[in-house]
Amino acid sequence: MFRHRWILLAGLTLCAAAPFACGNGTSSGGGSGDHGSSASSSGSGGPASGGDVGVASSSGGGNDTSGSGAAGGGSGTNAGSSSGGGSGGSDASGPDGGVASSSSGGAQGASSVVAFSSDRVIVTGVRNTTTSPATSAASLHNGGQTAVQVTSLEIGGADKSLFQVSGLPTLPATLLAGQDLPVTVQMMTTGATLPAAPTNKDLGSNLLTANLTATFSSGSTRTSLYGLLLIQSNWEPTLGQILTTLGYELNVGQAQNNWNPNTSMMATNLPGIEGGTDEVAAPHFVKAAAGAVTMSVAARFSPVGVLPYGWYPKGSSNTHNIVGTMSMIADPQTSDMARMVLPPPAAGSSTTFDPGSAPFGLWVYSDQATQKYAAANAVNGDYDYTEDALNSPANVHRIKTYPLKDATGATIAQSYLVAVEEAGNGDYQDYVFVLRNVNVAP
């Protein structure tokens, strides 16, 4: 079926008529929304074909609530949910909750609630790669009970010239109650306006920032844009850069600003628990409260492969309970979904599990020994565990754990960032997970 595609260039405003819908962010024109740190994933391809993003809201001084992302974060009393995603990207919710927002008005439902599906959109791409665009899918949602007119979508901020929005109808347009406008954000990977690459590959990638503002009849809403521009496909960002895009403020030690802190590249020289950082000892966890534990993939920068991950009961490390599987989908901008923030899960993956009341550990299958997907170093073994004694080589500290903190440095209760080193360079961003509704086991 033939379909017109429109491009909104950075700093310019286009205008078309069509109903659309979805999301959350921060909106002007009245009340403010509480939010968790939420993110959308990157990759190549077109707009999302998946579902809409639910938004819970109130107006006239009522409590705003947060939508639930992959791991159900964010504050609030009610929750919406997000689904969808484009080719090369997962849904727009990310490992934390979505963002609820409200505009001015009186009684609940009398005003419109229009917001993006996330408070941040993250794009990963490779410098001078042109075979497909580096994109990420999000959406704009009207969560109110009346239609609004969307008059403009405009990119601003420090690196506005390096982002554009594609696939838009002409504006102004009517956004009916409960409807979504898919929004695909593209990061430029070629051209004279690109910033100079880092002088040393160990400094990571270029971290780009901008914002996208939607203006409508009763106010406006904004989402932040982040781009990770890799020098080449297998030269990766630092863990600190990844955390910035996700909205987490953590001191992760040697891996903060260095992609290769372990210059020997030998796993036996990897650091243990690093003093003076936010890291805590966490060989095992316990469920904190009723309900399921959530485990979401926040980032992956590793060799390619369809790789499972999950949990095991303490004392039963051969019981590999699978929570989800990381996918492998052709995409030159993200090494087939192996190097990106918020990689899409394989079909059949979950984000929740219930370990009961007993302590449990986490595991990831890396394929380092079997090498089904790529050449690696067999000495590193196929599995990485939170329990050091189970790792290969024995007693290597392959998984670091940090109490999760938001962008202001405030601790997020019963939530942890879990960072994995599958090889030996010590970047601890091969696999990055967000774990919720847990405490470290005593």
How would you sum up this structure in a few lines?
By secondary structure, this protein is mainly β. It has one helix at 239-246; strands spanning 7-9, 26-27, 42-43, 114-116, 120-126, 134-142, 148-156, 163-166, 173-175, 180-187, 206-216, 219-230, 285-287, 293-301, 307-313, 321-326, 339-341, 352-353, 360-365, 383-385, 399-405, 411-420, 431-436, 438-440.
CATH H-level superfamily title of the largest domain: Immunoglobulins
Helix content: under 10%
How many helices? The count is: 1
| Amino-to-carboxy terminus distance | 59 Å
List how many beta strands DSSP finds.
Answer: 24
Q: What is the level 1 CATH name of the largest domain?
A: Mainly Beta
Kindly report the CATH topology of the largest domain.
Immunoglobulin-like
Poorly predicted runs: 1-94, 97-112
Largest sheet: 6 strands, antiparallel
Give the C-alpha Rg: 21 Å
**Tally of distinct domains:** 2
Oligomer: single chain
CATH architecture of the largest domain: Sandwich
Strand content: 25-35%
User: How would you classify the helix and strand content by structural class?
Assistant: mainly beta
Give a description of the structure.
By secondary structure, the protein is an all-beta fold. The chain folds into two domains: 7-230, Immunoglobulin-like; 255-440, no CATH class. It is 2% helix and 31% strand. The chain contains one helix and 24 strands. It has one helix at residues 239-246; strands at 7-9, 26-27, 42-43, 114-116, 120-126, 134-142, 148-156, 163-166, 173-175, 180-187, 206-216, 219-230, 285-287, 293-301, 307-313, 321-326, 339-341, 352-353, 360-365, 383-385, 399-405, 411-420, 431-436, 438-440. Strands 1, 3, 4, 6, 8 and 10 form a six-stranded antiparallel sheet that branches. Strand 11 and strand 12 (219-230) form a beta hairpin. The chain starts with 6 loop residues before the first strand and ends with a strand. The model is unreliable at 1-94 and 97-112 (pLDDT under 50).
